[in-house]
Amino acid sequence: MSKIDEYIAKRSQRSANFTREYKEENQQLQVAVEVHSLRDKLGMSQREFAKLVGKPQSTIARIESGKMNVSINVLNEIADATNQKLTVRFEPITA
Questions:
Q1: Judging by beta carbons within 10 Å of its beta carbon (0-12, 13-18, 19+), is residue 92 exposed, middle or buried?
Q2: How far is Cα 74 from Cα 77, in angstroms, rounded to an integer?
Q3: Tens of pLDDT along 12-60?
Q4: Is 90 exposed, middle or buried (0-12, 13-18, 19+ CB in 10 A)?
Q5: Burial of 3 (0-12, 13-18, 19+ CB in 10 A)
Q6: Which of 16, 27, 38, 57, by CA, is between 20 and 30 Å from 49?
Q7: Quick one: pLDDT at residue 11?
Q8: Is the pTM of this model over 0.85?
Q9: Helices (H), 1-95
Protein backbone atom coordinates (compact mmCIF):
# COMPACT_ATOMS: atom_id res chain seq x y z
CA MET A 1 0.00 0.00 0.00
CA SER A 2 1.37 3.39 -0.97
CA LYS A 3 1.78 6.26 1.49
CA ILE A 4 -1.20 8.08 0.00
CA ASP A 5 -3.34 4.95 0.27
CA GLU A 6 -2.32 4.60 3.92
CA TYR A 7 -3.18 8.24 4.57
CA ILE A 8 -6.57 7.91 2.89
CA ALA A 9 -7.33 4.74 4.87
CA LYS A 10 -6.42 6.39 8.19
CA ARG A 11 -8.41 9.55 7.46
CA SER A 12 -11.37 7.47 6.29
CA GLN A 13 -11.41 5.55 9.57
CA ARG A 14 -11.56 8.82 11.51
CA SER A 15 -14.04 10.71 9.36
CA ALA A 16 -17.05 9.57 7.37
CA ASN A 17 -17.17 13.07 5.88
CA PHE A 18 -13.63 12.65 4.53
CA THR A 19 -14.60 9.30 2.99
CA ARG A 20 -17.63 10.79 1.27
CA GLU A 21 -15.71 13.80 -0.06
CA TYR A 22 -12.79 11.65 -1.21
CA LYS A 23 -15.11 9.33 -3.16
CA GLU A 24 -16.87 12.28 -4.77
CA GLU A 25 -13.61 13.95 -5.81
CA ASN A 26 -12.24 10.66 -7.11
CA GLN A 27 -15.34 10.12 -9.27
CA GLN A 28 -15.08 13.63 -10.70
CA LEU A 29 -11.41 13.04 -11.49
CA GLN A 30 -12.22 9.78 -13.27
CA VAL A 31 -14.86 11.54 -15.39
CA ALA A 32 -12.40 14.36 -16.12
CA VAL A 33 -9.77 11.93 -17.34
CA GLU A 34 -12.27 10.02 -19.52
CA VAL A 35 -13.69 13.14 -21.16
CA HIS A 36 -10.23 14.58 -21.77
CA SER A 37 -9.04 11.25 -23.21
CA LEU A 38 -12.04 11.10 -25.55
CA ARG A 39 -11.45 14.66 -26.75
CA ASP A 40 -7.74 13.94 -27.23
CA LYS A 41 -8.54 10.73 -29.15
CA LEU A 42 -10.76 12.77 -31.45
CA GLY A 43 -7.95 15.30 -31.94
CA MET A 44 -10.12 18.25 -30.98
CA SER A 45 -9.56 21.42 -29.02
CA GLN A 46 -11.89 22.13 -26.12
CA ARG A 47 -13.68 24.70 -28.28
CA GLU A 48 -14.20 22.23 -31.15
CA PHE A 49 -15.31 19.49 -28.77
CA ALA A 50 -17.72 21.84 -27.01
CA LYS A 51 -19.28 22.86 -30.32
CA LEU A 52 -19.67 19.20 -31.31
CA VAL A 53 -21.44 18.28 -28.06
CA GLY A 54 -23.47 21.49 -27.88
CA LYS A 55 -21.98 22.84 -24.66
CA PRO A 56 -20.01 25.99 -23.87
CA GLN A 57 -16.22 25.59 -23.89
CA SER A 58 -16.22 26.64 -20.24
CA THR A 59 -18.35 23.60 -19.39
CA ILE A 60 -15.85 21.27 -21.06
CA ALA A 61 -13.02 23.01 -19.19
CA ARG A 62 -14.81 22.55 -15.84
CA ILE A 63 -15.50 18.88 -16.60
CA GLU A 64 -11.89 18.22 -17.60
CA SER A 65 -10.52 20.01 -14.54
CA GLY A 66 -12.71 17.91 -12.23
CA LYS A 67 -14.50 21.00 -10.95
CA MET A 68 -17.93 19.98 -12.23
CA ASN A 69 -20.13 17.20 -10.94
CA VAL A 70 -21.33 15.97 -14.32
CA SER A 71 -24.78 14.44 -14.63
CA ILE A 72 -25.46 11.21 -16.48
CA ASN A 73 -27.56 13.27 -18.90
CA VAL A 74 -24.58 15.42 -19.88
CA LEU A 75 -22.37 12.35 -20.24
CA ASN A 76 -25.05 10.78 -22.47
CA GLU A 77 -25.13 13.94 -24.60
CA ILE A 78 -21.35 13.75 -24.98
CA ALA A 79 -21.56 10.05 -25.86
CA ASP A 80 -24.30 10.62 -28.44
CA ALA A 81 -22.53 13.55 -30.08
CA THR A 82 -19.26 11.61 -30.36
CA ASN A 83 -20.84 8.31 -31.44
CA GLN A 84 -19.77 6.59 -28.22
CA LYS A 85 -21.52 4.23 -25.83
CA LEU A 86 -21.68 5.38 -22.22
CA THR A 87 -21.24 2.52 -19.77
CA VAL A 88 -21.91 2.72 -16.04
CA ARG A 89 -20.96 -0.23 -13.88
CA PHE A 90 -20.60 -1.22 -10.27
CA GLU A 91 -17.34 -2.74 -9.12
CA PRO A 92 -16.39 -4.20 -5.77
CA ILE A 93 -14.31 -1.98 -3.52
CA THR A 94 -10.80 -3.28 -3.07
CA ALA A 95 -8.87 -2.46 0.06
A1: exposed
A2: 5
A3: 889 888 888 888 888 899 999 999 999 999 999 999 999 999 999 999 9
A4: exposed
A5: exposed
A6: 27
A7: 86
A8: no
A9: 3-14, 16-42, 46-53, 57-65, 72-81
